[in-house]
Please model this.
Amino acid sequence: MATYERSINAYLRAKRVIAGGVDSPVRAFRAVGGSPLFVRSAQGATFIDLDGREYIDYVMSWGPLILGHAAANVVRAIQTAASRGTSYGMPTELESELAELVANSIPSIQRIRFVSSGTEATMSALRLARGFTKRAKVIKFAGNYHGHGDSFLIAAGSGALTFGVPNSPGVTEGTARDTIVVPYNDLDAVRKAVSANADAVAAIIVEPYAGNMGLVLPVPGFLRGLREIADASGALLIFDEVITGFRVGRGGAQVREKITPDLTTLGKIIGGGLPVGAFGGRADVMNELSPDGPVYQAGTLSGNPLAMSAGIATIRGLTEDVYAELDRLAARLVDGLGEVFTRYRIKHQISRVGSLLGFFFTDVPVVDLETAKTSDTALYARFFHQMLARGVYFAPSQFEAGFVSAAHTDTHVEATLAAADASINELMQVAG
Ligand code: PMP
Model:
């Protein structure tokens, strides 16, 4: 079959010169098998691969593109910014403008600083928490992913989980010792970890809705419990909202759940598809940063004018009407998928918050990494390829979330559900 020929050739070329042929591991399709698609272009809810086939996209660059690919207002903003210069290494008012938009939406962010990736945001937030509390240890949750900083590559989710290397070689024992890993949704484990490390925990970091082991939602009381434990112990509470920020509503997970973290990390949507991250929170904590305070953090391209412009345009486009429509459409998609799975008696679990969604092939309710791992990943891989062949692109791994954008329509959802029915039908025949 010549269907994927150009992508296959492009991958062979890439592998000769790029490590593993990709610049980020999950792109390599290892979890589902086969050769990754190379992209020619994208518009709205769809992209076109090198072989000229069009796909409905539910990855959307892993979350940033909430307005869709190449949204006209975002492209215009980038073009205007580019014509004025791509980087200055000096401040611009664009940074304050985006900062104000973020702070007005997420009240816990009294001060912010922009960086160039989610990884940088979480690394910087943790250093700041350590500097502020004068403590060393961090508590994180198994299956949560906070980028590839050394401190977070312990029981990490996303690609680290997909490839079975949640603990990476190259992370020193000393660093690993300062990271305490507990199960998601397990407050008792957090309490035990805190009391076993009295006065040593600088921060508890959590994905308030966990989107890197599939989508796993917090049980009632979990996030409030974390707030209480942090307060009682003197640790800072960090919400990693790199995925959830502006995704599950303007105020992210924290406004939805009415929990105020000390620090928040952001990325993805606030850069509108350009490389951006940010961390922010309590003014007294953020004031510890250089140049006002002693905690060092810096970046040549931090606050880049193109990235700021794309972020501003994206956030401006996120009206209440857009969120309502995203919610309606994503509900229709997961309800429809649930009906298809039920029709064919496929055991499954589905989760969704707004336009962020996930599904597992298991009859075990998924509340943490252990239960997420009960999913039939071989079935997921077969389903993925069936859908791909029908022009629908879900994440090339069970342990990632799905994203609906404002460019998706009922027509896309109907086509997706028809493809899902045909895919499962074919899988059942093969199995039967
Ligand atoms: N935190 C979370 C919750 C993430 O999902 C990710 C990336 N998917 C990161 C941090 C790291 O962001 P980046 O890939 O931009 O470094």
Q: What stands out?
A: The radius of gyration is 21 Å. The chain has two domains: 5-66+319-431, 72-316. The pocket of 4'-deoxy-4'-aminopyridoxal-5'-phosphate is lined by residues 62, 117-119, 122, 145-147, 158, 207, 211-212, 240, 242-243, 267, 277 (CB under 6 Å). The longest strand covers residues 201-206.
